[in-house]
Amino acid sequence: MKIKILKYLAAASILLSFSSCDDFLTEVNPNEISTASYWNNLSDCSKGLTAVYNQFRNPGLMSVAEETKRTDLSFPGWGRPNTSDEYYLQIFTASSSGANNKWDNLYKGIFRANEVIAGLNGIESAMKTEAELEEWTVQMGQARFFRGLFYFYLHSSFNNGNVILYDFVPEGEADFNQPLTDASVIREFFTADLEYARKNLPETWTTYSDSGAADNDSNLGRVTSGAATTVLGKSYLYAKDYTSAALLFKEVIDGGNYQLVDVADNFTTQGEWNQESILEIAYNANTKVEESEWSAEGTSNTYHMQFSPVGGWRSVYPSNWLLMAYMEDPMDPTDPRNIVTEEDGTERLRVFSLRTSYSVALVEDKDMTYYEGSVTADGTAFNNSECGYWRKMTNWDILNTEKTTNQKSGINFRVIRYADVLLMYAECLIKGGTNDGGVTEALKYINKVRYRSALKLLGTSASSEYSSSTHDEVSYTAQSLMDHLMYQERPLELSAEGYAIRQLDMRRWGITKSRFEDLSNRYYKRTDYTFYSDIQNKEVTRWGGLLQHATLEDYDYKSMDLVQAAKNYNEAKHSYWPIPTSETTANSEVN
């Protein structure tokens, strides 16, 4: 990292400016300016903040494909059953690009945030008016939010939380040679940053319509106190401090700034910046067109190419257990949102739940369009033993093929949604499955998430705020409800979202090895699916496109998941990313 960050000494002066909603995070870099003379006023620091936001947008920081393949959620690439993917097989090392790219991008963000913090400290005495002091404080809150966030990510992802602490702007090469800092010190450091941010950032920069959609606002995308509070709550939850985490999550819930919206508005360009979004990364495929899709200074992403089979690479797609869980996600048969009226006037239930239909594309989902197809099966061929794909982060609703965007996508990446807060709060109430006294209240918050998607609710209707909805009428214990959260609710609601949500969840619950072993012994088969194609004007068969459960006697060997991962996964080696070779080869103090 040292060598790379030295290159960023100048890069930190490549600060971006903005003047409107369209310009924010999209301006072309100005000429380089000396860092020693740059930080003269709030305008300079504001441009520095934009550089921090830009770094947050770098897809290498989230590493969605690599993090998803480290979990039970996906299979990598087309052509089952063989793969050489090191993340899926759990054979990655310190030399793997996933570890190196994430580390470099997180520290680049920290370096930029440190420059803004130092710049603001340097001009603090020049703040004379109340307005200037207020602006200074809000800028400092944003800079410290991101530094705290990036250190929270490093602490959660690398070397059991023992990483390098930079609380200053390095002046020369020697300053980059820093030793690893104990995880407890790193935690104290990012906690202080996030506490400052949550106390000094505004609750909201954005106004919303009655539907929960964002009105036009020049500050769309700026971080809020709610985001800082939520991230801090996550950090306590990850440490199993349920009491502290619950207090913070309840503060977000009671604040009234967030609400659940139509599930369809969370995964495409439609409904961006809605009231469910707590932390969201801005992308736009139509700005900075001179930048390639791979450019760190661009404004687009390529998540759609990784997920989509229509003009995309489909380098990662849902694992079979996840597809089956989505297919079996139980709907409330009495909810009118689940009723479809046919052309002849007859009524029937949807084939799949709303959550399922907007999360993944399944061959027999005739209630959804898919790219140019009038039904999902008409949108792609479902070949190569592939029975489903993620709809999330793909442009299935507005394009005929992803290739038309020149491998660029403008879909915003939702890092934290309000639904995540509700489910985490429920987990706190039952204290990870140990507090039966919290079950009734926990069910209330889980059912809010389920009701939004017209799903069958959990528990008894007599004790529910949705008493007229269909419930499973099961008497849950804290442990059985925790099992539901671990193996159903959180993965189905949040699959392939956020910062490594599933990977971090599995590790903190201690279930990764046992989960891989369980899933490696599940059997599936594929059968054909025939439908009338409006594109070809005839009946068409998707050979082997329909996934089903199977037994040892009739399973399809191509359908096996995680067999090698179950054998290879080692808690000591694979639960965290190792310190990457880019750091150990450049920083003598680490060794």
From TrEMBL:
Annotated SusD-like N-terminal domain residues: 76-171
Region forming the signal peptide: 1-22
Domain of life from the UniProt record: Bacteria
InterPro entries in alphabetical order: SusD-like_N (IPR033985), SusD_RagB_dom (IPR012944), TPR-like_helical_dom_sf (IPR011990)
Keywords: Cell outer membrane, Membrane, Signal
Primary location recorded for the protein, binned into one broad class: membrane
GO CC annotation terms, alphabetical: cell outer membrane
PROSITE patterns reported in the protein's UniProt record: PROKAR_LIPOPROTEIN (PS51257)
Residues in RagB/SusD domain copies: 275-590
Location relative to the cell: Cell outer membrane
Pfam families, sorted: SusD-like_3, SusD_RagB
Similarity section: Belongs to the SusD family.
Protein name as catalogued: RagB/SusD family nutrient uptake outer membrane protein
Organism: Labilibaculum filiforme
Source species taxonomy: Bacteria, Pseudomonadati, Bacteroidota, Bacteroidia, Marinilabiliales
